[in-house]
Amino acid sequence: MRAPRNMKALEELGRARLSPNFFMRDFLYSEISNYHGIPNIPDDPALAIAAGTGLCQHLLEPLQATFGRIAIRSAYRSCEVNRFGNENKLNCARNEASYAGHIWDRRDHTGAMGATACIVVPWFADRHAAGADWRAMAWWIHDHLPYSTLCFFPKLAAFNITWHEQPKRVITSYTAPKGRLTAPGMANHMGSHAAWYEGFPELSKPAA
Q1: Could you report the per-residue pLDDT of 54-81, keeping only the tens digit for each?
Q2: Does 162 score more than 90 pLDDT?
Q3: CA dihedral sign of residues 20, 23, 24, 27
Q4: How many domains is the chain partitioned into structurally?
Q5: Are 52 and 164 a contacting pair, CB within 8 Å?
Q6: Residue 206 resides in a domain
Q7: How many CB atoms lie within 10 A of CB 8?
Q8: Residue 46 is part of which domain span?
């Protein structure tokens, strides 16, 4: 599949269905792209679709089935958009560090594909605003879903969630307590963490 060269081709790319409830178009919006006029279009649409499909089917669909509608804050970034964001200190990592992350259409240095989206779960955002600890959601995801990395942010209890062919299983946060919550080899990594998320719904299977 070639990179879109006109509006009709881009429109068709947006129609690519990644999972029952998500289409490629859902992930192409970028404030950096919109404000600065930098196209946010994959160079390798087939790879972007494949990585996005993994993200949606394995992570976003189960989250939405369990907690209700999720909101996408930031997802796919083209190399040009991400580079501009990094060079202008707009909360984007270096391109090489973002391959198989926010840059879906590039494999990482191991040759593996992956995809990141920054999302808000309104069900949890309301509870977090009322005092719930971000670690409750982190541990629920850790115990139930095949994520690669999670990174939590202060505003709206938003977090980056990454699907990857070779999952790292690492959780970090910019919300207090800041830093690394867990990673393979840490004493808290294995076993159930159910005490953290009492009252959370049971994992729901997405509708086919």
Answers
A1: 999 999 999 999 999 999 999 999 999 9
A2: yes
A3: negative
A4: 1
A5: no
A6: no
A7: 9
A8: 7-197
97-115 core/surface letters (b: 16 or more CB in 10 A; e: else): ebbbbbbbbbbbeeeebbb
Looking at residue 190, its amino acid is M
Higher pLDDT, 42 or 206: 42
Residue type, 144: H
Q: Which of 150, 147, 145, 142 is nearest to 193 (CA)?
A: 142
Residue 147 lies inside a defined structural domain of this protein = yes
Quick one: how far is CA 82 from the chain centroid?
Answer: 15
3-state helix, strand, coil in the chain (%, to 5): 40, 15, 45
In a domain, 109, yes or no: yes
Which of these, 121, 166, 124, lies nearest to 147 by C-alpha position? 166
Biggest CA pair distance of the chain? 52
- For residue 154, the SS3 value is coil
For the record, the structure tokens of 62 come out as 């189960």
Amino acid letter, 20: P
- Residue 148 within any structural domain of the chain: yes
- Contact 137/197 with Cβ under 8 angstroms? yes
**Which two tokens mark 109?**
């240095």
Instruction: Name the β-bridge partners of 74.
Output: 118
